[in-house]
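User: Hi! I'm working on a homework problem where we have to compare a predicted structure to a textbook description. Could you give me the structure for the chain below?
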Amino acid sequence: MSDFIPLSVPSIKGNEWKYIKECLDTEWVSSVGNYVDQFEKKIAEYTGTKYAVACINGTSALHVSLLLAGVKPEDEVIVPTLTFIATVNSIKYCGAYPVFMDSDCYYNLNTEKTIEFIIKETEMKKTNISGGNEEWRSYNKRTGRCISAIIPVHIFGNAVWLDDIYKVCKEKNIKIIEDAAESLGTKYSKGKLKGKNTGSIGELGCLSFNGNKIITAGGGGMIITNNKKYAEKAKYLTTQAKDDSVRFIHNEIGFNYRLSNIQAALGVAQLEKLGSYIKIKKNNYDLYKKYIQKIDGLNLAAVPEYAVNNYWMYALQIDKERYGKDKKQLMRHLHDNNIQSRPVWYLNHKQKKYKCCQSFFIEEAEILYQETLNIPCSVNLRKESILKVIEKLNER
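Assistant: Happy to help. Predicted structure tokens:
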């Protein structure tokens, strides 16, 4: 429908057709090819990391990163309850358990509560590791399980405030795996991490290039790291753990997680446009903000002042009492006028498969879940479309 305004769709206006045609013409279409290498190199350069390993999606990047970080069956991983479920499912793929944390006002991991949990609810114990060696690890006092990692998720492109939690995790030997699936292009502008990109802070960072992300490869993900051993092991595991590719010898369990050359070609073309995409999305955010702040009961969620944001997804906050509609009613109203929106994800500590897992004083996430709708934010969103959304938001 020509008048339909989608939530978030890709913009294909660069070298996508040219690069994909080259893949087809040369017949390099599968998981080996020049564009896979290019994409990895360019992502590493852009994020300021030494290494990047391309995967089939962001979930596979998370799964492999958890394995690289040493997450084992029966371990625990700290994770926000407010995130897409793929983040949490990747923990279960490793046979581990999530421990759910609350959100801050930017929809991100509440670092103050998380630090409180780590300091008050965990203890250090000497643990036997491979080779007969011992090292100090953090253990959950309540469950007795080892807490081997934490996954801060940069929600909607908003950078998690990692300055304080970074130090605590180092002291407690908890590996940091950043879920930067939504935040490619977001960079810290204040604090100890000033100048660094999201995804480049922890031991490992994970990106996604799904169709609704700020750039897309029609799918795809990436593991970024400054650790050479992690990068080499990531490539090994994502290509079926080939110890002898001629004789098909595999000494570990690997995965068919490698990105195709065609997808990488699309990703390379999209990355060339990322700078302009971020500018467009900021301008659109500012335009929305200008009009929404005049509507009683509605607010466009702020972005962190300590980072330069990529403005991936816009979060509309609804005060039902003042506005006169709740998020379900407003979503239906927008739908009836050919405008796509979506609620924020159902909180994961309430999901059927995760109700049995520990959660730590979840409060703000409950409020954000109840009051938030994501509204159209595509790069190719036109001014007249934004004004139509504003028009419909003004209808009570």
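For your comparison, note the following. The two ends are 25 Å apart (CA to CA). The CA atoms of residues 74 and 204 lie 21 Å apart. Good luck with the assignment!
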